[in-house]
What does this fold into?
Amino acid sequence: MQTSGSTKSKLALFGGTPVRGHEKRWPEWPQFDETDKQALLGVLESRRWWDGERVQIFQKEFAALQDAGHCVVCNSGTTALIIALRALGVGPGDEVIVPPYTFVATASAVAWMGAVPVFVDVDETWNLDIDLAEGAVTERTKAIIPVHFGGALCDMDRLNALSEKHGVWIVEDACHAWGAKWKGKGAGALGRCGTFSFQQSKNMTAGEGGAIVTDDEELAVLCRSLVDCGRGTDGIWYNHPRVGTNARLSEFQAALLSAQLLRLEAQNEVRQTNAAILNQGLGRIEGLVAQPRDPRETRPVYHLYCLRVDPARFGCSRQRLIEAADREGLPLSAGYARPLNRQGAFLDGPNRQRYEVSLCPVAEDLCQTSALWLTHPVLLGTPEDMRDIVEIFQKIKAHASELNTGEGER
Ligand SMILES: Cc1ncc(COP(=O)(O)O)c(C=O)c1O
It folds into this structure.
Protein backbone atom coordinates (compact mmCIF):
# COMPACT_ATOMS: atom_id res chain seq x y z
CA MET A 1 0.00 0.00 0.00
CA GLN A 2 1.20 3.47 -0.89
CA THR A 3 1.90 5.78 1.99
CA SER A 4 -0.13 8.95 1.57
CA GLY A 5 1.05 12.52 1.93
CA SER A 6 -0.55 12.79 5.33
CA THR A 7 1.96 10.38 6.86
CA LYS A 8 4.53 13.15 6.36
CA SER A 9 2.45 15.83 8.07
CA LYS A 10 2.49 16.47 11.80
CA LEU A 11 0.53 14.22 14.15
CA ALA A 12 -2.78 15.75 15.24
CA LEU A 13 -1.64 15.10 18.82
CA PHE A 14 1.09 17.69 18.22
CA GLY A 15 -1.08 20.23 16.40
CA GLY A 16 -1.17 18.74 12.89
CA THR A 17 -4.28 18.21 10.78
CA PRO A 18 -6.09 15.00 11.72
CA VAL A 19 -6.65 12.34 9.05
CA ARG A 20 -10.34 12.46 9.99
CA GLY A 21 -11.83 15.82 10.85
CA HIS A 22 -14.96 16.26 12.98
CA GLU A 23 -17.18 16.20 9.90
CA LYS A 24 -16.39 12.51 9.41
CA ARG A 25 -18.55 10.33 11.64
CA TRP A 26 -18.34 6.64 12.44
CA PRO A 27 -21.60 4.67 12.14
CA GLU A 28 -23.87 4.96 15.16
CA TRP A 29 -24.90 1.96 17.23
CA PRO A 30 -27.44 0.51 17.75
CA GLN A 31 -29.18 0.89 14.41
CA PHE A 32 -32.93 0.81 13.78
CA ASP A 33 -35.46 1.84 11.19
CA GLU A 34 -39.20 1.78 10.66
CA THR A 35 -39.27 -2.05 10.95
CA ASP A 36 -37.99 -1.90 14.52
CA LYS A 37 -40.41 0.91 15.42
CA GLN A 38 -43.38 -0.98 13.99
CA ALA A 39 -42.32 -4.19 15.74
CA LEU A 40 -42.26 -2.43 19.11
CA LEU A 41 -45.50 -0.59 18.43
CA GLY A 42 -47.14 -3.86 17.42
CA VAL A 43 -46.32 -5.37 20.82
CA LEU A 44 -47.45 -2.24 22.63
CA GLU A 45 -50.81 -2.18 20.93
CA SER A 46 -51.32 -5.95 21.27
CA ARG A 47 -51.28 -5.52 25.08
CA ARG A 48 -49.45 -8.84 25.17
CA TRP A 49 -46.13 -7.70 26.57
CA TRP A 50 -44.84 -11.05 27.83
CA ASP A 51 -45.24 -14.79 27.24
CA GLY A 52 -46.61 -14.34 23.73
CA GLU A 53 -45.79 -15.40 20.23
CA ARG A 54 -42.89 -12.95 19.61
CA VAL A 55 -40.64 -14.91 21.94
CA GLN A 56 -41.62 -18.19 20.24
CA ILE A 57 -41.02 -16.71 16.79
CA PHE A 58 -37.63 -15.27 17.68
CA GLN A 59 -36.51 -18.54 19.29
CA LYS A 60 -37.26 -20.37 16.03
CA GLU A 61 -35.53 -17.71 13.93
CA PHE A 62 -32.41 -17.68 16.08
CA ALA A 63 -32.19 -21.49 16.27
CA ALA A 64 -32.36 -21.54 12.45
CA LEU A 65 -29.64 -18.88 12.17
CA GLN A 66 -27.27 -20.94 14.31
CA ASP A 67 -28.30 -24.31 12.82
CA ALA A 68 -29.42 -25.46 16.26
CA GLY A 69 -32.34 -27.74 17.05
CA HIS A 70 -33.48 -25.46 19.87
CA CYS A 71 -33.14 -21.96 21.24
CA VAL A 72 -34.17 -20.76 24.70
CA VAL A 73 -34.09 -17.01 25.20
CA CYS A 74 -33.44 -15.32 28.54
CA ASN A 75 -32.60 -11.89 29.92
CA SER A 76 -28.80 -11.75 29.36
CA GLY A 77 -25.75 -13.59 28.15
CA THR A 78 -24.65 -13.96 31.77
CA THR A 79 -27.94 -15.63 32.67
CA ALA A 80 -27.65 -17.85 29.59
CA LEU A 81 -24.31 -19.18 30.91
CA ILE A 82 -25.72 -19.66 34.42
CA ILE A 83 -28.79 -21.50 33.15
CA ALA A 84 -26.72 -23.71 30.84
CA LEU A 85 -24.36 -24.68 33.67
CA ARG A 86 -27.24 -25.29 36.04
CA ALA A 87 -29.01 -27.48 33.47
CA LEU A 88 -25.82 -29.50 33.04
CA GLY A 89 -25.65 -30.01 36.80
CA VAL A 90 -22.47 -28.02 37.40
CA GLY A 91 -22.16 -27.23 41.10
CA PRO A 92 -19.92 -27.27 44.19
CA GLY A 93 -16.92 -29.55 43.85
CA ASP A 94 -16.83 -29.21 40.05
CA GLU A 95 -14.22 -27.45 37.98
CA VAL A 96 -14.87 -25.63 34.71
CA ILE A 97 -12.01 -24.56 32.43
CA VAL A 98 -12.32 -20.99 31.15
CA PRO A 99 -10.00 -18.53 29.40
CA PRO A 100 -8.83 -15.49 31.41
CA TYR A 101 -9.16 -13.17 28.40
CA THR A 102 -12.93 -12.64 28.22
CA PHE A 103 -15.74 -10.71 29.86
CA VAL A 104 -16.13 -11.54 33.54
CA ALA A 105 -19.41 -13.43 32.98
CA THR A 106 -17.65 -16.46 31.45
CA ALA A 107 -15.99 -17.18 34.80
CA SER A 108 -18.47 -15.59 37.22
CA ALA A 109 -21.24 -17.86 35.91
CA VAL A 110 -19.08 -20.81 37.03
CA ALA A 111 -18.38 -19.29 40.44
CA TRP A 112 -22.09 -18.39 40.80
CA MET A 113 -22.82 -22.14 40.59
CA GLY A 114 -20.40 -22.75 43.48
CA ALA A 115 -17.97 -24.44 41.07
CA VAL A 116 -14.34 -23.42 40.47
CA PRO A 117 -13.38 -21.54 37.30
CA VAL A 118 -9.97 -22.90 36.29
CA PHE A 119 -8.19 -20.30 34.20
CA VAL A 120 -6.21 -21.59 31.24
CA ASP A 121 -4.29 -19.12 29.10
CA VAL A 122 -5.18 -18.11 25.57
CA ASP A 123 -2.75 -18.52 22.67
CA GLU A 124 -1.93 -16.47 19.56
CA THR A 125 -5.54 -16.91 18.38
CA TRP A 126 -6.70 -14.90 21.47
CA ASN A 127 -8.80 -18.00 22.30
CA LEU A 128 -8.29 -20.81 24.79
CA ASP A 129 -5.00 -22.69 24.37
CA ILE A 130 -6.38 -26.17 23.78
CA ASP A 131 -3.14 -28.01 24.66
CA LEU A 132 -3.04 -26.22 28.02
CA ALA A 133 -6.77 -26.90 28.49
CA GLU A 134 -6.22 -30.62 28.02
CA GLY A 135 -3.41 -30.51 30.56
CA ALA A 136 -5.71 -28.80 33.08
CA VAL A 137 -8.44 -31.47 32.94
CA THR A 138 -8.83 -33.32 36.25
CA GLU A 139 -11.38 -35.85 37.48
CA ARG A 140 -13.38 -32.87 38.77
CA THR A 141 -13.58 -31.08 35.41
CA LYS A 142 -17.19 -31.01 34.30
CA ALA A 143 -17.03 -28.59 31.39
CA ILE A 144 -14.90 -26.29 29.27
CA ILE A 145 -16.22 -22.89 28.21
CA PRO A 146 -14.34 -21.78 25.10
CA VAL A 147 -15.03 -18.17 24.12
CA HIS A 148 -15.16 -17.29 20.41
CA PHE A 149 -13.40 -14.05 21.16
CA GLY A 150 -14.33 -11.09 18.99
CA GLY A 151 -16.24 -13.56 16.79
CA ALA A 152 -13.14 -15.66 15.92
CA LEU A 153 -14.18 -19.28 16.31
CA CYS A 154 -12.17 -21.65 18.49
CA ASP A 155 -10.94 -24.91 16.96
CA MET A 156 -14.17 -26.80 17.63
CA ASP A 157 -12.83 -30.00 16.01
CA ARG A 158 -10.13 -30.25 18.65
CA LEU A 159 -12.40 -29.16 21.48
CA ASN A 160 -15.03 -31.74 20.60
CA ALA A 161 -12.34 -34.44 20.36
CA LEU A 162 -11.09 -33.40 23.80
CA SER A 163 -14.67 -33.49 25.09
CA GLU A 164 -15.11 -37.07 23.92
CA LYS A 165 -11.74 -38.23 25.17
CA HIS A 166 -12.18 -36.83 28.70
CA GLY A 167 -15.96 -36.85 29.10
CA VAL A 168 -16.23 -33.09 29.67
CA TRP A 169 -18.90 -30.87 28.12
CA ILE A 170 -18.17 -28.01 25.78
CA VAL A 171 -20.35 -25.00 26.54
CA GLU A 172 -19.54 -22.41 23.87
CA ASP A 173 -19.56 -18.82 25.01
CA ALA A 174 -20.75 -17.54 21.64
CA CYS A 175 -21.61 -14.10 23.00
CA HIS A 176 -19.56 -12.52 20.15
CA ALA A 177 -20.54 -14.93 17.36
CA TRP A 178 -24.07 -14.32 16.05
CA GLY A 179 -24.33 -15.89 12.61
CA ALA A 180 -20.79 -17.34 12.62
CA LYS A 181 -20.31 -20.80 11.11
CA TRP A 182 -17.64 -23.45 11.53
CA LYS A 183 -17.47 -25.91 8.61
CA GLY A 184 -21.04 -25.00 7.68
CA LYS A 185 -22.60 -25.24 11.14
CA GLY A 186 -23.53 -22.36 13.41
CA ALA A 187 -21.58 -21.33 16.50
CA GLY A 188 -23.25 -22.35 19.73
CA ALA A 189 -24.59 -25.54 18.18
CA LEU A 190 -21.11 -27.05 17.79
CA GLY A 191 -20.61 -28.19 21.39
CA ARG A 192 -23.15 -29.47 23.94
CA CYS A 193 -24.77 -26.05 23.97
CA GLY A 194 -23.85 -22.41 23.41
CA THR A 195 -24.79 -19.03 24.80
CA PHE A 196 -25.39 -15.60 23.24
CA SER A 197 -25.80 -12.02 24.44
CA PHE A 198 -28.03 -9.31 22.98
CA GLN A 199 -26.79 -6.52 25.23
CA GLN A 200 -26.52 -3.02 23.73
CA SER A 201 -22.93 -3.28 22.48
CA LYS A 202 -23.57 -6.53 20.62
CA ASN A 203 -24.01 -7.06 16.84
CA MET A 204 -27.74 -7.62 17.38
CA THR A 205 -29.40 -6.15 20.42
CA ALA A 206 -32.52 -5.47 22.40
CA GLY A 207 -30.62 -3.44 25.02
CA GLU A 208 -30.37 -6.61 27.10
CA GLY A 209 -31.10 -10.24 26.33
CA GLY A 210 -29.53 -13.66 25.94
CA ALA A 211 -30.04 -17.11 24.46
CA ILE A 212 -28.98 -20.72 24.83
CA VAL A 213 -28.89 -22.91 21.73
CA THR A 214 -28.50 -26.68 21.61
CA ASP A 215 -29.35 -29.74 19.56
CA ASP A 216 -30.29 -31.59 22.76
CA GLU A 217 -34.06 -31.39 23.23
CA GLU A 218 -34.01 -32.58 26.84
CA LEU A 219 -31.45 -29.95 27.75
CA ALA A 220 -33.50 -27.24 25.99
CA VAL A 221 -36.67 -28.23 27.87
CA LEU A 222 -34.77 -28.07 31.15
CA CYS A 223 -33.25 -24.67 30.31
CA ARG A 224 -36.71 -23.32 29.37
CA SER A 225 -38.08 -24.50 32.71
CA LEU A 226 -35.18 -22.94 34.67
CA VAL A 227 -35.70 -19.61 32.88
CA ASP A 228 -39.44 -19.76 33.62
CA CYS A 229 -39.68 -20.26 37.41
CA GLY A 230 -39.03 -24.01 37.22
CA ARG A 231 -42.38 -24.65 35.53
CA GLY A 232 -43.16 -28.11 34.16
CA THR A 233 -44.20 -28.98 30.64
CA ASP A 234 -47.77 -30.01 31.54
CA GLY A 235 -49.14 -26.51 31.01
CA ILE A 236 -50.30 -26.21 34.64
CA TRP A 237 -49.33 -22.66 35.58
CA TYR A 238 -48.65 -23.20 39.27
CA ASN A 239 -46.81 -26.50 38.89
CA HIS A 240 -43.10 -26.13 39.71
CA PRO A 241 -41.29 -29.47 39.67
CA ARG A 242 -37.90 -27.78 40.18
CA VAL A 243 -36.34 -24.60 41.47
CA GLY A 244 -35.93 -22.05 38.71
CA THR A 245 -35.74 -18.31 38.33
CA ASN A 246 -37.59 -15.73 36.29
CA ALA A 247 -35.15 -14.83 33.52
CA ARG A 248 -37.70 -14.50 30.73
CA LEU A 249 -37.37 -12.12 27.81
CA SER A 250 -40.27 -9.73 27.21
CA GLU A 251 -42.27 -9.59 23.99
CA PHE A 252 -40.80 -6.13 23.29
CA GLN A 253 -37.26 -7.50 23.36
CA ALA A 254 -38.15 -10.51 21.21
CA ALA A 255 -39.92 -8.33 18.62
CA LEU A 256 -36.92 -5.99 18.49
CA LEU A 257 -34.52 -8.91 18.10
CA SER A 258 -36.54 -10.31 15.17
CA ALA A 259 -36.26 -6.89 13.53
CA GLN A 260 -32.52 -6.68 14.26
CA LEU A 261 -32.05 -10.15 12.83
CA LEU A 262 -33.33 -8.92 9.45
CA ARG A 263 -30.19 -6.83 8.98
CA LEU A 264 -27.64 -9.00 10.81
CA GLU A 265 -26.43 -10.99 7.81
CA ALA A 266 -25.97 -7.91 5.59
CA GLN A 267 -24.16 -6.09 8.42
CA ASN A 268 -21.94 -9.11 9.07
CA GLU A 269 -20.98 -9.10 5.39
CA VAL A 270 -20.06 -5.43 5.47
CA ARG A 271 -17.90 -6.03 8.54
CA GLN A 272 -16.22 -8.98 6.87
CA THR A 273 -15.46 -7.02 3.69
CA ASN A 274 -14.10 -4.12 5.71
CA ALA A 275 -12.01 -6.44 7.88
CA ALA A 276 -10.41 -7.76 4.69
CA ILE A 277 -9.46 -4.19 3.69
CA LEU A 278 -7.92 -3.67 7.13
CA ASN A 279 -6.08 -7.00 6.97
CA GLN A 280 -4.52 -5.97 3.70
CA GLY A 281 -3.53 -2.47 4.76
CA LEU A 282 -2.53 -3.07 8.36
CA GLY A 283 -0.83 -6.39 7.62
CA ARG A 284 2.00 -4.44 5.97
CA ILE A 285 2.74 -2.31 9.00
CA GLU A 286 5.63 -3.65 11.05
CA GLY A 287 4.71 -4.27 14.68
CA LEU A 288 0.98 -4.90 14.11
CA VAL A 289 -0.59 -8.38 13.90
CA ALA A 290 -4.33 -8.94 13.40
CA GLN A 291 -6.08 -11.70 15.36
CA PRO A 292 -5.80 -14.74 13.07
CA ARG A 293 -8.90 -16.36 11.61
CA ASP A 294 -9.26 -20.12 11.10
CA PRO A 295 -9.91 -21.10 7.44
CA ARG A 296 -12.53 -23.57 8.71
CA GLU A 297 -14.76 -20.59 9.57
CA THR A 298 -17.21 -20.82 6.69
CA ARG A 299 -18.94 -17.60 7.75
CA PRO A 300 -16.59 -15.31 9.64
CA VAL A 301 -18.18 -12.77 11.96
CA TYR A 302 -16.54 -9.74 13.54
CA HIS A 303 -17.72 -8.38 16.87
CA LEU A 304 -14.30 -6.80 17.34
CA TYR A 305 -11.41 -6.27 14.96
CA CYS A 306 -8.50 -7.24 17.19
CA LEU A 307 -4.87 -6.30 16.70
CA ARG A 308 -1.71 -6.87 18.70
CA VAL A 309 0.91 -4.18 18.74
CA ASP A 310 4.51 -5.01 19.50
CA PRO A 311 5.73 -1.67 20.93
CA ALA A 312 9.39 -2.43 20.21
CA ARG A 313 8.73 -3.10 16.52
CA PHE A 314 5.99 -0.54 16.02
CA GLY A 315 8.06 2.15 17.67
CA CYS A 316 5.89 3.41 20.55
CA SER A 317 3.80 2.14 23.44
CA ARG A 318 0.18 1.05 23.04
CA GLN A 319 -0.98 3.92 25.23
CA ARG A 320 0.75 6.54 23.07
CA LEU A 321 -0.61 4.86 19.93
CA ILE A 322 -4.17 5.05 21.32
CA GLU A 323 -3.76 8.71 22.28
CA ALA A 324 -2.40 9.59 18.84
CA ALA A 325 -5.14 7.59 17.05
CA ASP A 326 -7.82 9.33 19.09
CA ARG A 327 -6.58 12.74 17.93
CA GLU A 328 -6.45 11.54 14.31
CA GLY A 329 -10.15 10.63 14.64
CA LEU A 330 -9.98 6.88 15.36
CA PRO A 331 -11.51 5.39 18.53
CA LEU A 332 -9.21 2.53 19.58
CA SER A 333 -9.61 0.54 22.79
CA ALA A 334 -6.98 -1.27 24.84
CA GLY A 335 -9.67 -3.76 25.91
CA TYR A 336 -9.61 -5.51 29.27
CA ALA A 337 -7.34 -3.88 31.82
CA ARG A 338 -6.48 -7.18 33.51
CA PRO A 339 -7.11 -10.88 32.88
CA LEU A 340 -9.82 -12.56 34.95
CA ASN A 341 -7.32 -14.60 36.97
CA ARG A 342 -6.35 -11.29 38.57
CA GLN A 343 -9.87 -9.95 39.19
CA GLY A 344 -10.81 -9.59 42.85
CA ALA A 345 -13.94 -11.66 42.24
CA PHE A 346 -11.81 -14.79 41.85
CA LEU A 347 -8.94 -14.01 44.19
CA ASP A 348 -10.81 -14.72 47.40
CA GLY A 349 -11.12 -18.13 48.92
CA PRO A 350 -9.35 -21.45 48.66
CA ASN A 351 -8.54 -21.27 44.96
CA ARG A 352 -6.32 -18.25 45.20
CA GLN A 353 -3.13 -20.11 44.40
CA ARG A 354 -4.53 -21.25 41.08
CA TYR A 355 -4.77 -17.73 39.77
CA GLU A 356 -1.21 -16.54 39.87
CA VAL A 357 -0.24 -14.05 37.23
CA SER A 358 2.44 -16.30 35.80
CA LEU A 359 -0.21 -18.85 34.84
CA CYS A 360 -1.53 -16.75 31.97
CA PRO A 361 1.32 -14.82 30.31
CA VAL A 362 -0.41 -14.39 26.94
CA ALA A 363 -3.59 -12.92 28.46
CA GLU A 364 -1.37 -10.78 30.68
CA ASP A 365 0.50 -9.44 27.65
CA LEU A 366 -2.76 -8.71 25.79
CA CYS A 367 -4.11 -6.77 28.77
CA GLN A 368 -0.97 -4.91 29.74
CA THR A 369 0.85 -4.29 26.49
CA SER A 370 -0.48 -5.38 23.16
CA ALA A 371 -4.27 -5.68 22.63
CA LEU A 372 -6.06 -3.15 20.47
CA TRP A 373 -9.78 -3.39 19.69
CA LEU A 374 -11.79 -1.70 16.99
CA THR A 375 -15.46 -2.15 17.83
CA HIS A 376 -17.94 -3.51 15.31
CA PRO A 377 -19.80 -0.26 14.51
CA VAL A 378 -16.53 1.09 13.07
CA LEU A 379 -16.46 -1.94 10.77
CA LEU A 380 -19.84 -0.85 9.39
CA GLY A 381 -18.18 2.18 7.79
CA THR A 382 -17.36 2.68 4.11
CA PRO A 383 -14.27 1.35 2.33
CA GLU A 384 -13.01 4.96 2.49
CA ASP A 385 -13.39 4.86 6.28
CA MET A 386 -11.25 1.70 6.30
CA ARG A 387 -8.60 3.42 4.20
CA ASP A 388 -8.62 6.25 6.75
CA ILE A 389 -7.92 3.70 9.49
CA VAL A 390 -4.96 2.31 7.57
CA GLU A 391 -3.71 5.84 6.90
CA ILE A 392 -3.97 6.71 10.59
CA PHE A 393 -1.86 3.70 11.58
CA GLN A 394 0.67 4.49 8.83
CA LYS A 395 0.91 8.10 9.96
CA ILE A 396 1.41 7.15 13.60
CA LYS A 397 3.98 4.52 12.65
CA ALA A 398 5.90 7.14 10.64
CA HIS A 399 5.97 9.42 13.70
CA ALA A 400 6.24 6.75 16.41
CA SER A 401 9.64 7.89 17.68
CA GLU A 402 8.24 11.36 18.45
CA LEU A 403 5.65 9.73 20.67
CA ASN A 404 8.40 8.10 22.68
CA THR A 405 10.52 11.16 23.19
CA GLY A 406 7.61 13.51 23.67
CA GLU A 407 9.07 15.69 20.88
CA GLY A 408 6.54 18.28 19.76
CA GLU A 409 4.38 17.63 22.79
CA ARG A 410 1.94 20.25 24.11
C1 LIG B 1 -17.69 -13.12 25.98
C2 LIG B 1 -18.90 -12.67 26.74
N1 LIG B 1 -19.56 -13.59 27.49
C3 LIG B 1 -20.66 -13.25 28.19
C4 LIG B 1 -21.15 -11.96 28.20
C5 LIG B 1 -22.32 -11.61 29.05
O1 LIG B 1 -23.39 -11.09 28.33
P1 LIG B 1 -24.42 -10.05 29.01
O2 LIG B 1 -23.76 -8.73 29.08
O3 LIG B 1 -25.59 -10.08 28.08
O4 LIG B 1 -24.77 -10.59 30.35
C6 LIG B 1 -20.49 -10.98 27.44
C7 LIG B 1 -20.99 -9.59 27.42
O5 LIG B 1 -20.31 -8.63 27.25
C8 LIG B 1 -19.34 -11.34 26.71
O6 LIG B 1 -18.65 -10.44 25.99
Notes: The radius of gyration is 22 Å. The mean pLDDT is 95. The chain has two domains: 5-30+263-405, 34-259. The longest strand covers residues 304-309.
